[in-house]
C-alpha cells in the first residue's frame, strides 16, 4: 500500500511537471525516482546485517495471566533498522491448528531487546517457532525476507491462588473468625441430600433400609458434600542462626497485625545479647562516619548520571530517524541548489544597473577573474575588456559610465541603461560558464548560483 501511494504521488508530480512545464517539479520527480533504487539497496543492506532470535528459550507462565517474552535483535551494520516484522507460529500439544502471529520491532546498532505480552488460554506446553523476518527500508517501500530457525518453549502452569496463613499465637487468642457451624447446610456430612434408586457401584452401608422395606426396592441415601469448609494450616517460624560466640541459636519471628515483625532469641542469654549489640554499634557508627565525606560526591555523580541517562533515553526514539533524514537531505540538496540558482537569476532580471554591477563583480570573484577589483579603479574598463574577450572596450567603458552616473549623478538610470547592464551581465555569465570545466563549473553554477 505504501509503495502504491508513493508511485501514485510520483505519477502526479510527473503529470503536473509536464502539464505546466515546471523544471522544479521535474527535478523533484527525478529526486523521488532516485529514491526507489536507494531504498531497495538499503533494504538489502539492513537485511544482511540483522539477526533476530528469542532472548529466552524457556518461559514459564500461568493460565489466564499475561506473561512477557522477548525478541533479541542484533544489528551488526552501521545503520539502524527502523522496522522489521517477525512471523511466528504457535503450536500447542493436542491441537492440530497452529496459530500465526506477527510482531513488529526496531533495532539500533548493536544488540537490542523488545518485549511482547501474551495470555495463555490453556495449561500445557506451547512452542513459539520463528519462521522468517521481513526487514523494511526507512520509507517502507521495499522489504527483504530472511529465514529463521529459532524456537521458544512456554510452559503454562495452572493459576496460583492465595492461602490464608495465621500464626499459632493469633489462632490461640480471640475467637475464630471462621467458626465451624455443623448445623449450616452443607457442613454436616450426616445430612441427607436426596434418596435415589440403588446402582451397582453404590455402597451397601448407604442403603435406606426402611424405605426399601416399604417399597420392596433398594433405595440409597445421598449425603451432602462439604463445599465451604476451611482448613487452618499453622507454620512453625522458628529458625536457627549461627552466632560467633554462641553457635547455632534459635530465633522466633512473630508477625503483628500492622505488618511488622518482632524477633526473640529464646535460647540466648539477655545480658550476652545486649553486650553483642553494644559492641557492634560503635563499629557501625565509625563505618558510617568514614563513608559520609564521599557520599555527597557519589550521590551527585549518580544524579548527574541518571539525568544523562534519561536524556539519552528521550533521544533514543529519534536516533533511527537520523539516517532517513540524512538521505532525504542528501537527495533534496540538488533541488534546493537548483531552486536557489533560478531565484537568483529571476532576481537579477529585475535589478537596476547598480545592483546588477554588484552582482557582476561577485560573479567575477567567484570565477577567479579580477578578484581584487572593486570597479572604481583607474583603467578598470580597459582591464575588464582585456580579461573578458566577450566584452569590447566600448561596452566596458559604457557599463562603467552608466554605473558611475547612477551612483554619483543627480538623476536615476534610464530603463535602457538598466537593460544594457543586464545584457552585459548575462552574456558574461554564459561565457564564463563555457570556459570553466568540471567541478569549477558546478561550483560556479550551483554553489555560486550563477
From TrEMBL:
Residues 282-306 are annotated as: Disordered. This is DUF58 domain-containing protein. InterPro entries: DUF58. Residues 194-237 form the DUF58 domain. Keywords: Membrane, Transmembrane, Transmembrane helix. Residues 288-298 have a biased composition (Basic and acidic residues). The chain crosses the membrane at residues 321-339. It comes from Candidatus Mediterraneibacter faecigallinarum. Pfam families: DUF58.
